[in-house]
Amino acid sequence: MGHFSISDLEQLSGVKAHTIRIWEQRYGILRPVRTATNIRTYCDDDLRRLLNVATLCNRGHRISQVARLSEQELMDAVISCNNDENNYCQQVNGLLAAMLHMDEPQLSSLMNNATRKLGFEDAILHVAYPFLQRIGVMWQAGCVNPAQEHLVTNLLRQKIMAAIDAVPPVKPAEVRRWVLFLPEGEMHELALLFMNYALRARGHHVLYLGQNLPITELEAICASYEPHAICTVMTAVPERDKVQEFIDELHRLCPSPTLFLYGPLVQQENIRLPFNAIKVRLMTDFLALVEEMQPTAAKEALVLAKT
Q: Which residues form the B12-binding domain (predicted)?
């Protein structure tokens, strides 16, 4: 069970600490306990209720009315109003509340609704990504348990895989060819999976090698597949002081393709890039770069798909 301070609740919910105190004292929406030093601490149920209350208040409901709702009535009201395609914060709050409740059907339903309203790519960029960022903050604070994190990761992985399967295949000889892989020991796959989808949706051919690939395998792959570009994501692997060595070895094995390097470990200021490497800071930067490389026919098809 999580133990949150009021500043934790403020950061995770977007509701100011002053407002949280008023809602607590005036309307009793939260039930904190006090430590031996008289400091308020809040639990998972408090955070989940606050997220739901904030969602309804952001939709124009009066706090005095929301405070009188039972837990079930509160959840039903949140579900019924979670269809606003432009209110990303509200949708993220709904996902967080469902995650804390380990409510897999609700998580899936909310993501499906976001995809239906926004399209798959915008649902990932504007809803799923902020959702994962909030989970990251909660993980660092010790407020998310491994089961909750695995539930979300596997659900999103399933959604991305389904979207990839729905993209019509292209012949590798006729388009730009990409190799996507994660370094040996790296298991954080969601960003790479989304890149896989984005490339395929834009008419590129992708050889997706996934997690935990020994870098030495790439030399033979480049010789046989002859990719135009190679993309990898470094989240937890290699160790920070080994990143430069990894990039240099990647360049040595694959000197011809353009190397796209993404992930927090790549953002170190002292990293020296070989001539054929591009450091990608944001996922939107990656998509912009891919758009520039996109075949004309695929660009037109993508525009039509978004309209």
A: 175-300
Residue tagged 């934790």 (tokens): 8
Tokens of 170: 């292209």
Q: Which two tokens stand for residue 162?
A: 């389904």
- The strand ranges marked E within the chain are 33-34, 40-41, 177-183, 205-213, 229-233, 258-262, 277-280
Compute φ and ψ for 93, nearest 5 degrees.
Answer: -60, -40
Asked whether the predicted pLDDT for residue 179 surpasses 50, the reply is yes
CATH number of the domain to which 152 belongs: 1.10.1240.10
Residues belonging to the chain: 307
Residues 265 and 201 grouped into a single domain: yes
- 160 burial class (0-12, 13-18, 19+ CB within 10 angstroms)? buried
CB 74 within 8 A of CB 52: yes
User: pTM score, two decimals?
Assistant: 0.71
Q: What is the DSSP letter of 127?
A: I
Residue 212 belongs to domain spanning: 172-306
pLDDT one-digit tens code per residue, 218-253: 999 999 999 999 999 998 888 888 999 999 999 999
Q: How many domains does the chain fold into?
A: 2
